[in-house]
């Protein structure tokens, strides 16, 4: 909304503000001019910036002060009109109108002002010498335009500058007194530079500049000569603006300073808005948190493109190419963030190398964990890294896959999910934390060196189930039997952990199972930790083995992380398998021939044998029909040998397949 004020009192000759409005609309000077023009709306399709514009006139003769104050509060830009041939009108700009407007607007959100010198057709000189000191005194003044309503001089330009003052304001970007960019603008442009520096070498080479020009902001490539001209402009004005024939951060900032000084604010604003910034140079909520609808019983995962993007970010910052991020490299990666998103607990949530640095696999695991637990946080992080810009997506939501409802997975007995959650429950001291850390390949000796304030309740890494890579997320649930939240119960598989060396440890597992999981479809596994120690009798009515047998659970699985090498990880693969195929429960480890798995395997075995026999019969029959004229014994001997070999190979294949399962 553009508001026009007359800079004169009623007793002084009119300055022509209403004439300006009517000349714009009719494209001719009006013969009769009313005291005030009605509000006019200019459609978006006839304006240079493609935005609808409302023009509001004000007249002291027809409107009250209260109406004036209301219009000031609603205006996006205010044009103060003075007459270039009347000094009193210029004086009233500073003595009356600007103080009045400033008193009625908040200091932190001042409305941009445009000074309009009308009736330039009546004088041969310019008023700019008088106006420039006023512009330097008041930062809210965006620009000054001299025009004439009578001969239509600069009328269209006036309204263009009014729109530009709203859409591309100078105030947030540039300090005219210091003649330099404001700190908030430097911060935003620095992030944009780092996101655009795809190889992280500190300069924007020609490919990166063209990618920035075409893919991110302006949809137009720069010719090689144009690129060289841009770099030459920087070279002439500063010594360290160009390095290795690429644009440095200082050179990048200088170019934007030059754009603003030359009145091309829209160039800088186009860049800022493409990278998600609002008028206050803050990343917008719409950019950081796009809407992702997640139905009940569905989970969130990163898709293939998201992993490719994160891989490129990792490679960009892994300067020593050791497939791990040192603390300095992690800090450099998160320089585009307003805060450090990963704390020291992350190093105990994912896999690290011998130096305690997050590995490539650990890095992807942490992103997977964040997306699963808090997808909005993951979207925010991807926004800071510029995912939607680099991959030319509408928003970061394109990086997220919402999985199918778990009930459908159960009905179809198959899943396309890649991340599975295992909640680990047990009494205090039962070995839950050790079980989590062992998943990351850490034995008891390593775990003892972990600081208490650096410990994590989560551990995530990959396992392979039938050749497919899957993520298993372990969550240590704090032992509070009286209250377990929905988050504590919502998972794909449950681990009930007890210490075989503590007589009261199993009691907690038994009570939790009977209270929360006895009628649940969630698979459960009992883990007997510290199996390297002496096993004592548990103070419970049933022994762990008897309890498992009674409730049709598999026998307690022995586990220890007190070893010189990395702990055995077979149990984690079994847990992932159990989470993927809950209808089959867990792979049978007891050969009981009674559980679902064993019965299925027996059926498979019989089916396989039937198929082998049928195949043999077909081979013999086909050979007989094809060579019916061969009656000699040599043929039948060969046929018999061939059938025997085929049977042996078929049985061997069956054994291999069974072993893999």
TrEMBL record:
Pfam families: EF_assoc_1, EF_assoc_2, Ras. Atypical mitochondrial nucleoside-triphosphatase (NTPase) involved in mitochondrial trafficking. Probably involved in control of anterograde transport of mitochondria and their subcellular distribution. Can hydrolyze GTP, ATP and UTP. It is an enzyme of class 3 (hydrolase). InterPro entries: EF-hand-dom_pair, EF_Hand_1_Ca_BS, EF_hand_assoc_1, EF_hand_assoc_2, EF_hand_dom, Miro, Miro-EF-hand_domain, MIRO_dom. Keywords: Calcium, GTP-binding, Hydrolase, Membrane, Metal-binding, Mitochondrion, Mitochondrion outer membrane, Nucleotide-binding, Repeat, Signal, Transmembrane, Transmembrane helix. Its EC number is 3.6.5.-. Residues 1-18 form the signal peptide. Its main location: mitochondrion. This is Mitochondrial Rho GTPase. GO terms for cellular component: mitochondrial outer membrane. Belongs to the mitochondrial Rho GTPase family. Residues 305-340 form the EF-hand domain. The keyword Nucleotide-binding applies. It is a single-pass type IV membrane protein. The keyword GTP-binding applies. The chain crosses the membrane at residues 635-657. It catalyses: UTP + H2O = UDP + phosphate + H(+); ATP + H2O = ADP + phosphate + H(+); GTP + H2O = GDP + phosphate + H(+). GO terms for molecular function: calcium ion binding; GTP binding; GTPase activity.
């Amino acid at each position: 909304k553009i508001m026009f004020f007359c800079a004169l009192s009623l007793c002084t000759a009119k300055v022509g503000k209403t004439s300006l409005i009517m000349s714009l609309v009719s494209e001719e000077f009006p013969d009769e001019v009313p005291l005030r023009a009605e509000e006019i709306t200019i459609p978006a399709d006839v304006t240079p910036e493609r935005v609808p514009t409302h023009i509001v006139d004000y007249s002291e003769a027809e409107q009250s002060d209260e109406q004036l104050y209301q219009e000031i509060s609603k205006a996006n830009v205010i044009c103060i009109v003075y007459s270039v041939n009347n000094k009193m009108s210029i004086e009233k700009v500073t003595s009356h109108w600007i103080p009045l407007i400033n008193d009625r607007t908040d200091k932190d959100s001042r409305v941009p002002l445009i000074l309009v010198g009308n009736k330039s057709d009546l004088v041969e000189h310019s008023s700019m010498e008088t106006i420039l000191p006023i512009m330097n005194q008041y930062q809210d003044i965006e620009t000054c335009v001299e025009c004439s309503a009578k001969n239509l001089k600069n009328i269209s330009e006036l309204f263009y500058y009014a729109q530009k003052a709203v859409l591309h304001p100078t105030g947030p970007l540039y300090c005219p007194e210091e003649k330099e960019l404001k700190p908030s603008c430097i911060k935003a442009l620095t992030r944009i530079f780092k996101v655009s520096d795809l190889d992280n070498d500190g300069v924007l080479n020609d490919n990166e500049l063209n990618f920035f020009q075409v893919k991110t902001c302006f949809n137009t490539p720069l010719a090689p000569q144009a690129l060289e001209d841009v770099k030459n402009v920087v070279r002439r004005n500063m010594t360290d603006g160009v390095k290795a024939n690429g644009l440095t951060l200082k050179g990048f900032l200088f170019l934007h300073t030059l754009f603003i000084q030359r009145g091309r604010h829209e160039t800088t604003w186009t860049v800022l808005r493409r990278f998600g910034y609002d008028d206050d140079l803050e990343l917008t909520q719409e950019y950081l948190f796009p809407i992702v609808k997640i139905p009940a019983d569905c989970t969130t995962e990163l898709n293939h493109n998201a992993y490719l993007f994160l891989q490129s970010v990792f490679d960009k910052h892994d300067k020593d190419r050791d497939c791990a991020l040192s603390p300095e490299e992690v800090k450099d990666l998160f320089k585009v963030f307003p805060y450090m998103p990963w704390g020291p607990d992350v190093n105990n949530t994912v896999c690290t190398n011998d130096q305690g640095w997050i590995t490539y696999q650990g890095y992807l695991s942490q992103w997977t964990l964040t997306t699963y637990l808090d997808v909005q946080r993951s979207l925010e992080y991807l926004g800071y890294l510029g995912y939607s810009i680099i991959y030319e997506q509408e928003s970061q939501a394109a990086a997220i896959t919402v999985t199918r409802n778990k009930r459908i997975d159960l009905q179809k007995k198959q899943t396309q999910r890649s991340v599975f959650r295992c909640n680990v429950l047990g009494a205090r001291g039962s070995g839950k934390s050790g079980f989590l850390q062992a998943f990351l390949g850490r034995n008891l000796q390593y775990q003892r060196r972990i600081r208490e304030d650096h410990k994590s309740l989560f551990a995530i890494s990959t396992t392979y189930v039938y050749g497919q890579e899957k993520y298993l997320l372990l969550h240590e649930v704090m032992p509070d039997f009286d209250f377990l939240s929905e988050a504590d119960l919502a998972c794909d598989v449950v681990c009930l952990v007890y210490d075989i060396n503590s007589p009261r440890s199993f009691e907690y597992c038994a009570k939790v199972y009977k209270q929360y999981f006895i009628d649940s479809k969630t698979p459960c596994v009992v883990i007997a930790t510290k199996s390297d120690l002496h096993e004592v009798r548990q103070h419970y009515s049933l022994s762990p083995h008897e309890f498992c047998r009674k409730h049709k659970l598999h026998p307690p699985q022995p586990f220890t992380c007190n070893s010189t090498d990395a702990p055995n990880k077979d149990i984690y693969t079994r847990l992932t398998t159990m989470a993927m195929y809950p209808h089959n429960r867990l792979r049978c480890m007891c050969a009981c021939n009674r559980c679902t798995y064993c019965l299925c395997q027996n059926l498979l075995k019989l089916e396989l044998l039937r198929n082998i026999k049928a195949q043999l019969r077909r081979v013999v029959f086909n050979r007989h029909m094809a060579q019916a004229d061969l009656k000699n014994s040599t043929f039948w001997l060969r046929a018999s040998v061939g059938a025997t070999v085929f049977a042996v190979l078929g049985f061997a294949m069956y054994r291999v397949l069974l072993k893999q399962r």
